[in-house]
Amino acid sequence: MDIVNLSALEIKKKIINKELSATEVVKAYLNRIEEVEKDINAFISIDKEGALKAAERVDEKIKNGEELGSLAGIPIGLKDNIVTKGLKTTCGSKMLENFNPPYDGTVVERIKDQDGIIIGKTNMDEFAMGSSNERSYFGPTKNPVNNSLVPGGSSGGSAAAVKANEVALSLGTDTGGSTRQPAAYCDLVGIKPSYGLVSRYGVVSLAGSLDTVGVFGRDVSDASLMLSAIMGYDEKDSTSYENPIDLAFEKELEPTDYIKGMKIGIPKEIYLDEMDKRLIEQFDKAIKVFESLGASVEEISLSHLEYGLSTYHVISTAEISSTLARFDGLRYGYRAKEYSNLDELYINSRTEAFGDEVKRRILMGTYYLSQGLGREYYEKALKMRTLIIDDFNKAFKDFDVILTPTSPILPFKLGKLKGEPLTKDLTSIFTAPVNLAGLCAMSIPCGYVDGLPVGLQIIGGRFKEINIIKAGLGFEGGMKNGI
Ligand code: GLN
User: Fold this and answer.
1) I need a surface site. Which of 27, 378, 401, 446 has the fewest CB within 10 A?
2) Active site residues
3) Which residues sit with their C-beta closer than 6 Å to ligand 1?
4) What CATH number should be reported for the domain holding residue 146?
5) What's the pTM value of the predicted model, to 2 decimals?
6) Tens digits of per-residue pLDDT, 219-269?
7) Is 338 part of any domain?
8) What distance in angstroms lies between residue 133's CA and the mean position of ligand 1's atoms?
9) How many CB atoms lie within 10 A of CB 323?
């Protein structure tokens, strides 16, 4: 049995049934990392000692007949913008190269409470700004599907680590698509939960009104397992949702039972000129799978979808310019060696430690918020955000889920879009509107074209995770059965 090929749920079952020990599992994963990591660069740091200790604790619990948590012995990777006590948290930036947080984020506490094993911190675009993982201070991550391709971003390290079997599950973040897009490029399931479902306490902010913690798994059940372990109310996050929700992922139903009678909307606005035509063909095939499983599929209109990307751009950069003001060279993070007054300390520290993309976004956000222009850009963007939310609300009155491609383009070669920030931004065209509206969505593999993986996005209403999970389970089952 090759341990690293097992699903997270299988690992957990085998540990509980004493077919495997947690230590054996962790060692198998650490060996795998040793083997492949030099070609992938999925991690910024690996906590070998901590992982082995955590595994020992799980084994001890089993020996004592204690009850185990839902993530018992499962090796997990965390994006490096999720703070971990005593374990370096860099956000992929020189600014935080040596930052050792004094506390664990809520999601980290929950993983530990559920007996999950944290293997290490994964590579990412600097401060989660990007779509290719080429903007990390620690070098690019490569796509395990094909090493010459980008893994997507900004949670590309978390996606690559799962795809390369370096961990069984991982966490990313998703502000405009950063979990779904790398899931699509690495042929994985990625879920972006509804805004407020998963605590952001201890997650370094990019744009606070859009940020969410996302999950990666090799299939829908694994990703749902990860989500169910970390979701739920947290008094430390003022935007946390108080009501409990149910995810029915472990019930053993036939796929058709999930999909039969489901109402699915396809926005007519997605058929853009910028779309890769091969992707459209694959998308149309996916729709047929849902139809043949008994869903009713109808065309809908999200008439403001076309403004989603520019709205996201203005709101996110405005929030970024304010959020990143905290990195001033004084409190924590990088401090320039040379300066002769306070202003110079700020300027030199930020100039030396931030990469180009971070600077570009801070500048743009500052511009959009500057006196006189706030009305012109920022307020207009807020109004457009409301119209986008209204479009979705209307659609979800009649439909259970909405389908779109995850990305309008296929995974591209490393370096290919260097110097083309706008083309890269385009990859968020179908994902960013979901963040603007606070909804949940999943990217799920829907086949390959020319050897490149394609992701399908399943969008659900706010806190209707159950719908995207059912649709995902059904679709996955249908694909497996060759429907
Ligand atoms: N690619 C998007 C961006 O660069 C998404 C970022 C994210 O979700 N963190 O803004």
Assistant:
1) 27
2) 79, 154, 178
3) 128-131, 154, 173-178, 206, 316, 428
4) 3.90.1300.10
5) 0.97
6) 999 999 999 999 999 999 999 999 888 886 666 677 778 999 999 999 999
7) no
8) 10
9) 19
